[in-house]
Amino acid sequence: MTSPVVHVTRHVLSGALLRGARQDVRLVARGWRWGRRSMVPRSAEPFVPAQTAEPFPTAWARTPAATVVRDGLQRFGLRPLMRSGITPTVRGLDVLDQLAGPVVFVANHTSHLDTPLILCSLPDAWRRKTAVAAAADYFFDTWWRATSSAMVFNTFPIERRSGSMSATPGDLLADGWNVVVFPEGTRSPDGWTRRFKPGAAFLSQTQQVPVVPVGIRGSFAAMPRGRGWPVPGRPAVTVRFGEPLLPQVGEGPREFGTRIEGAVALLVDEDATTWWDATRRAARGQTPPMSAPDTAQWRRVWDQTRPPVVRTTRRIWR
Amino acid sequence: MSRPGFVLEVDDRTPPLVVHEGEGFRLETFPRGTRVIYPPESLPGIRDVDGAIRRALLEPTNSEPLPVLLTAGMRLTIAFDDISLPLPPMVKPDIRQRIIEQVLTMAAAAGVDDVEIISANALHRRLTAAELKDIVGERVFRSFFPQGALYNHDAEDPDGMLFIGETDRGEVVEINKRAAESDLLVYVNVNLVAMDGGHKSVPIGLAGYKSLRHHHNSHTMVNSRSFMDHTKSAMHHSAWRMGKLLADHLKIFTIETTLNNDVFPDSYGFLMKREWEWGVRDQASMLAARRGLAIAPKSVRHKLYQGMRAPYGLTGINAGETEAVHELTVAKVHQQQMVEVQGQSDVLVMGVPYVGPYNVNSTMNPILATCMGLGYYFNSYRGQPVVRKGGAVILYHPVEPDFNQLHHPSYVDFFEEVLSTSTDPAVIEAKFEQQYATDPWYVHLYRTSHAYHGVHPFYMWYWAAHAMDHVGDVVWVGADRKAVERMGFRAASSLQDALEMVSGTVGRSPSITYLHNPPHLIADVR
Fold this sequence. Notes:
The structure holds two protein chains of two kinds.
Chain A: H1 4-13, H2 16-31, H3 64-85, E1 87-91, E2 104-107, H4 114-121, H5 124-128, E3 130-135, H6 136-139, H7 143-153, E4 155-158, H8 168-174, E5 178-181, H9 199-207, E6 211-217, H10 219-222, E7 236-241, H11 253-272, H12 275-283, H13 297-304
Parallel strand pairs in A: 1-7, 2-5, 2-6, 3-4, 3-5
Antiparallel strand pairs in A: 6-7
Chain B: E1 6-9, E2 17-20, E3 25-28, E4 35-38, H1 49-58, H2 66-69, E5 75-81, H3 95-110, E6 114-120, H4 129-136, H5 138-144, E7 150-152, E8 161-166, E9 172-176, H6 177-180, E10 184-191, H7 202-205, H8 209-212, H9 218-222, H10 234-249, E11 252-259, H11 280-295, H12 298-306, E12 314-320, H13 322-337, E13 338-341, E14 345-351, H14 366-377, E15 381-382, E16 387-396, H15 409-421, H16 425-438, H17 440-448, H18 456-463, H19 465-470, E17 473-477, H20 481-486, E18 490-492, H21 495-506, E19 512-515, E20 522-525
Parallel strand pairs in B: 4-19, 5-6, 5-10, 6-7, 10-11, 13-20, 14-16, 14-19, 15-20, 16-17, 17-18
Antiparallel strand pairs in B: 1-4, 2-3, 8-9, 11-12
Helix pairs in contact in B: 1-3, 4-5, 14-18, 16-18
């Protein structure tokens, strides 16, 4: 019978320890999807407990030092990177001239491009003071994803499963930060807009800050769900900011939410046609709905993957 | 809020799953579509344990309160479940200690002088003084052990057993004389699984070979379907008949406790979690544990595992008349362990862990590993077995032919002599049981040393009789080839090989169910 010391020494020297460790680590890395989003087996999904963990702290990402670092990252990293993949067109920024902030930016959401699009479209002074509400279960499920998204995009976690409103966006608005909210709660699977949840309207009402509607067109065609990079050819994407909206006296969050949804739909229509045509259609109550038509899935996706025609002043002399 | 147990269907998102195999565990990648039965999460333990014990003693079920039953000058005997329960042994203070202390406090207040405390070990080995002390606590041990009033039951003491009578089926009821002649017998039970408790406590725990042979035999065991449902178990039916007879002769105050599923200490917390919910810490702990176990010499590994103490929480305590109490107990056990499963499968996979009822502070030899896998785990069902008739069972355990000479001397001979002749429970029962049960050397070791009774390995083999009768193929993964061959089984080096080997019985694409325990579970197969 060998002594424990001899046994251990033999085990180490033979390389069995390292070999076994390497095999185990490889098995665990693959099985638990290291570096990727963890997944629950489908049959176990009904038994996943509700998230009760403390929200990931993001206050550090809004300190002056982090703001300076983020400004550099966005100006010299994110913006050139985005322009290398898509051709963005921004309209309606003049509405911000009449505002002092803070405001709630409310946009339709079809792609991961939407957040950098809005941030990089904003004037620098606005961009530096803008935070983005991001799904806690998606962007804050791992420490590295949470840290990087808070650093680069100034995101803060928002619980979308429980239905309860996180306290953070109200605090941020009270502290003078603008907040970007995608009231659909998730990216559209077919490019068409889903029903707006009343959270953004509720936030605007409780904090008494205006809502700036933002219509985004073409981001689904450029980078739909499932893609990590825009399609080749630098597809065109447009971002259009609309007139600020304020809750009216006696107006509930649902009614105000419907009005915001209408304003975003108007911006999308305006972008597809002209301001005059879209305004007249809106006056007649005939603004094309953003919600998906009752057609086959492929037709809905087909329709939304058509790149937007961007009206630009054509240069005759090249 | 504890989540219920459920049946997982392995898909592309399922990580490798933990499979216990003796003093170690492995991560196994199961074929897609495999069903995995997970036990319910631990129920919250009772916070005020002493208060719950007091309430149970003062407000018993179908009985007068304990203080009313205690009178000066009476003869009181307290018997308790031995070291085979719970598994693994629980962190101190043991629940039996807390109960016995309260019973003794009431007895002292009533002026009871004649008190003896007996470990109800039937034909199990005698507990050492240290093991008795672990269970009853220092205070009780110091008050009773030196005076010889705390001791192990001796089923072979000709003057220590009393014939009570025979049941209407001719079953001999003979129990410990001191207990039988007491004015009151208080039995303190730990009901870890549904087959424990009820009339299995006194008529079995304090009995001897003459009584036990009526239900611990191959015929009864094959017809116990299953042990976890006492209403459908021939073994329990026999014990119930004996218990009813006994109840006419002896006043028994039964105290039954139920525990939650906290079977592993914090350092092994990952073994209690569902694998896909493992965080970074769990994964790191698992990797460290795997490497540590791989590098550790066998003796260190053994010490590490046998030193493990479960932080069990008490989920219920009921006292009073045996049958009424047991109904409440079983309901609580079901609440903690029952999982609904739809239909049987072709193959049942089970990982046999390091400890069973008969190798606490000892070695799990091949016969005990078989008893644990094909006896206890296979029988962890209600309704019908998880595997279909004629299906296959795949077990994980090293099955090393290591025997503890102090605890299991008759097992060595059983393995070498009996199993080399036949592995058929009925054949070996007819040919060898009597010889081993009455062998004077084994009797001597049982009475004076710490050896299991000579007949004990036969009983272990009978536990597996139902499984051996039901399934067509048994394959052990990672086992010692010669040892499993001796027992009439086959060995495979991997799950894939095992499935290949059983394909002759169940085909090339069988339905597979993996029983993910411990923690304990009962599959309610519909």
